[in-house]
Specification:
CATH architecture of the largest domain: 3-Layer(aba) Sandwich
Shape: rod-shaped
CATH topology of the largest domain: Rossmann fold
Structural class: alpha/beta
Largest sheet: 8 strands, mixed
Number of domains: 2
Radius of gyration: 50 Å
CATH superfamily of the largest domain: von Willebrand factor, type A domain
Number of strands: 14
Strand content: 15-25%
Length: 380
Amino acid sequence: MQHTPPSPPPPLPPPFPPDGAYGAEPVMLPLGGRADNAPDTRAAKGLSLLMAIGINALILAALAWVAFKVVEVEEIEIAVSAGPVEAKTEIVPKEFQRQTRTKPKPASGSMAPPLIAAAATPSNVFVMSNPTEVDAFGIGAGFGEGSGFGGPGGGGGSVGFFGSNSTAERVAFIIDVSQSLNNEQFDLIKSELTKSLERLSGSTQYQVIFFSGPAWFAADDQTGKGRGTRTVTHGGKKYLWETRGGAHQYFLKGDKELYTAPWISVSKANVARTLRRVEEVDRSYGTDWRHPLRMALSLNPKPDVVYFLTDGAVSNGQQAVDETLKLNRRGGRPAKINTIVMMQPRAEDLLGELADKTGGEFTVVKADGSVERPKGRRKR
């Protein structure tokens, strides 16, 4: 049997060639045996990005929660600070209600309402005829048959004087300041006029005209004594008044036209100026109805209501009444003229006629300060 010799061993690989023998740098294999590590790098970057996004999201969520809490606290603070305002608002209506329900006080009180209804029989000036119908001034609201005369076209407010009450946008007070008035009468007139002016509403315009022999607006100056020439300074100009004889025949010297004035809007300052004039005015000689009534009805626009107060009859009274009625029919709606006489029943016929024919009221003020509307005269 032939013996077969063993195969020779395979040849050994040649030794590593020197650097650069194969034209390339030797490749260092990683421990894992992979030559390309790009996939692991991309995965790590992706993981880092996800972690960063997650952390940022948590931070944003935390900031949003903090911001929500801050807003919530601020809202609570605002609600608390608004509390006193609501409490103050509740007080105002209560105060208003308390004022509007104030009852009229006696004549001696500084806050006594000036507008009261005159009674058919002697009664106190300041007693309300219908206390259940009272507005913010403590004034009755009814006007009766006479409401067809001299009512305001719209707006206006409550006005009144010595027992006659109306509503008007424009009201003129004509006040006798003749020497025949005694101290009690004169003081009472000033007191009642003051109350009436103080209670005019802000939507009302007014004028005050004084008269004895001459006539002048409250803002004018009147000088002169006795029966001689009297001077009225109006708008910086001087007007001379003289008499043709007696207390009832005064005229403007030089045939000058009777002066006029604009309406005065109600304000604290304007009323205060007028009240100073009311306080300062003094009595003087003469009583002539014609001029003050013409001055009142010549105001532009015409008054809605006129209060004409005097202390007695005059010799030319019928002429004054006729001229006034004729003038009142001109230039739009006639004014309602309320006539008031101070303790002088002899003037009843003429003053009653003037009131009746203009839709007004005629009132007598008695010695004790009470008012009376004579029986048989229409109540308006």
